[in-house]
């Protein structure tokens, strides 16, 4: 068993929960990303009444890091207010895959324990620059 309070990145994700704006779902999520140079950026979910304009914690953390000049990440931690082991949703997984390779560790808060995944386990067939280039090449062969 891993004690989540011993993981500084997960602690930062938990702290980010306090800033979540969740008047509709009442399900706060916090995320923290560690960049290749060791910097840490956090995010929380920010809901909107129409839901589709809501921002997810992982997106907010990645956006903050990218805004500050970072585009390589080595670790991600996610926590919810109920510490139910929440993993990044599909959209967030794809966003993470834009900046992370499949080996990047994603740590999910289970309260007294953590679950740990490689991003590639969570999103095995990502859309990438390479897949888009392959699709373009395939179209060129068909024409």
UniProtKB/TrEMBL annotation:
MF term (GO), any: zinc ion binding
PROSITE patterns registered for this protein in UniProt: CYT_DCMP_DEAMINASES_1, CYT_DCMP_DEAMINASES_2
Enzyme active site: 58 (proton donor)
Gene3D superfamilies from the UniProt entry: Cytidine Deaminase, domain 2
Catalytic activity: cytidine + H2O + H(+) = uridine + NH4(+)
InterPro entries associated with the record: APOBEC/CMP_deaminase_Zn-bd, CMP_dCMP_dom, Cyt/Deoxycyt_deaminase, Cyt_deam_tetra, Cytidine_deaminase-like
One cellular component (GO) term of this entry: cytosol
Enzyme Commission no: 3.5.4.5
Domain CMP/dCMP-type deaminase: 4-130
Primary enzyme class: hydrolase
Binding site for Zn(2+): 89, 92
The protein's required cofactors: Zn(2+)
Record's keyword terms, sorted: Hydrolase, Metal-binding, Zinc
Residues annotated for substrate binding in this entry: 45-51
Presence of the UniProt keyword Zinc in the record: yes
Name of one Pfam family that matches: dCMP_cyt_deam_1
GO BP annotations listed: nucleobase-containing small molecule metabolic process; pyrimidine-containing compound metabolic process
Family (UniProt): Belongs to the cytidine and deoxycytidylate deaminase family.
Role played: This enzyme scavenges exogenous and endogenous cytidine and 2'-deoxycytidine for UMP synthesis.
Name recorded for this polypeptide: cytidine deaminase
Gene name in the database record: cdd
């Amino acid at each position: 068993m891993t004690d989540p309070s011993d993981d500084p990145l997960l602690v930062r994700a938990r702290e980010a929960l306090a800033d979540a704006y969740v008047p509709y779902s009442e399900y706060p999520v916090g995320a923290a990303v560690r960049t290749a140079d060791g910097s840490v950026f956090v995010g929380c979910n920010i809901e909107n009444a129409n839901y589709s304009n809501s921002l997810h914690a992982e997106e907010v953390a990645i956006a903050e890091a990218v805004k500050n000049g970072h585009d390589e990440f080595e670790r991600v931690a996610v926590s919810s207010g109920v510490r139910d082991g929440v993993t990044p949703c599909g959209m967030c997984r794809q966003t993470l895959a834009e900046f992370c390779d499949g080996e990047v560790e994603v740590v999910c808060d289970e309260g007294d324990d953590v679950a740990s995944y490689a991003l590639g386990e969570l999103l095995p067939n990502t859309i990438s620059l390479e897949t888009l280039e392959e699709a373009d090449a395939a179209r060129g062969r068909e024409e």
